[in-house]
Design a protein that fits this description.
The chain is α/β, with parallel strands linked by helices. The chain folds into two domains: 1-38, DNA polymerase, domain 1 (Orthogonal Bundle), CATH 1.10.150.530; 42-335, Alpha-Beta Barrel (TIM Barrel), CATH 3.20.20. Helix content is 32%, strand content 17%. It has helices at 2-12, 26-35, 107-121, 148-159, 179-188, 202-208, 217-225, 250-262, 287-299, 330-335, and strands at 42-48, 54-59, 65-72, 77-80, 84-85, 103-104, 135-138, 171-175, 192-196, 236-242, 267-273. The strands form two sheets. Strands 1-2-3-4-7-8-9-10-11 form a nine-stranded mixed β-sheet, with helices on one face. A two-stranded antiparallel sheet has the order 5-6. A hairpin with a 5-residue loop joins strand 1 and strand 2. Helix 5 (179-188) runs parallel beside helix 7 (217-225). The termini are far apart. It binds iron/sulfur cluster. Iron/sulfur cluster (SF4) binds next to loops.
């Protein structure tokens, strides 16, 4: 009973002091204060894009930083959170991949990114309907499956009715393809799966997503087919970044559809126009090319919406996160 009360104060009312927990006795409040802290990491940079996207640079107690991004839409609000400071995977199109891995985030540091966004959006107490954060995606900095235990613990807090109380259908974990942990993720974490595919041949994917050299496309798509809980009503999302003359031909689109059918995947494809960053080795495909690519996939019965870039002006778009991004000169940012 006491645990429920404390969780309710923390996760549904957003309090940061035990002394504010009115239905807890003074003596227990003191005991809690002596043994625990409720705090938020500092937000060292806060930017709002011209399209309403908000980016938080969050500094944790040891001084390390990670970014999270809130993307408002008409019918939803998506919060993209980080699971690591930096990343080991070095995907070639991703700005985070240029920053070496510093460390995994703890479960509380992962959850605290949601608490910070809810503070900012004024979502206390938890609204019974009309929440501003309707969806959470683990697509920020880092590979979530390389921080399995902390991500699992954090997601269980997000899903818990006495925690953040978010349906698992509204939480998506994105992996670059850590094949050995995918089945376990489906079973133990049980959220929607997104896979950073980005190429349809091993030759190209080896370069774009180097983890492919360890777990090539055949192994990845077999693991997707076996992902617990995936079915037509809960499809796996394949993220596909559109890179000019690299992965955006008609043949690539047809091959992508062929793979989805071959492995009988309940899937949809998210086409992501490449978001540039300083020194990026790629260019975004032309708009007509992206539309053609999308229509070819649609024609074969697979959904392939184009994800409109959000927050590019504040380097908050997909693949642009990096905790050092605050150091980019304004002139450089303008060029992007
Ligand atoms: S795309 Fe994801 S896994 Fe790849 S380098 Fe970027 S953060 Fe890491």
């Amino acid at each position: 009973m006491r645990t429920s009360q404390v969780w309710n104060w923390i996760y549904h009312r957003g309090v940061t002091e035990f002394s504010a927990m009115a239905n807890i006795s003074k003596s227990l409040q003191k005991q809690l204060e002596a043994n625990f802290i409720i705090s938020r990491p500092d937000v060292t940079s806060y930017q709002i894009s011209e399209d309403g996207t908000r980016k938080y640079l969050v500094r944790f107690r040891d001084g390390n930083e990670a970014e999270s991004v809130f993307i408002p839409d008409e019918d939803r609000g998506t919060l993209c959170i980080s699971s690591q400071v930096g990343c080991t995977l070095n995907c070639r199109f991703c700005y985070t991949g240029t920053q070496r891995l510093v460390r995994n985030l703890s479960a509380n540091e992962i959850v605290s990114q949601i608490m910070i966004a809810r503070d900012d959006l004024g979502e206390w107490p938890t609204p019974t309907d009309g929440r501003k954060i309707t969806n959470i995606v683990l697509m920020g900095m880092g590979e979530p499956l390389y921080n399995f235990e902390n991500v699992k613990k954090a997601v269980l807090i997000l899903r818990d009715p006495e925690g953040i109380q978010m349906s698992r259908r509204r939480i998506t974990l994105s992996t670059a393809g850590v094949v050995p942990l995918m089945e376990r993720a489906g079973r133990e974490i049980g959220v929607n799966l997104a896979v950073s595919l980005h190429a349809v041949t091993d030759e190209v994917r080896d370069k774009l997503v180097p983890i492919n050299r360890k777990y090539p496309i055949h192994e990845l798509l077999s693991a997707c087919r076996d992902y617990p809980g995936a079915h037509n009503a809960r499809r796996i999302t394949f993220e596909y970044i559109m890179l000019k003359d690299i992965n955006d031909s008609d043949a690539d689109a047809k091959k992508l559809v062929g793979l989805i059918h071959k492995y009988e995947l309940p899937a949809k494809v998210n086409l992501i126009p490449f978001n540039p960053w300083p020194g990026a080795p790629y260019e975004c495909s032309d708009w007509e090319r992206i539309e053609k690519f999308s229509s070819l996939i649609f024609k074969s019965g697979v959904s392939a919406p184009i994800r409109m870039p959000r927050g590019r002006d504040i380097m908050a778009a997909c693949g642009q996160l990096k905790s050092a991004s605050i150091k980019i000169k304004a002139s450089e940012r303008k060029k992007l």
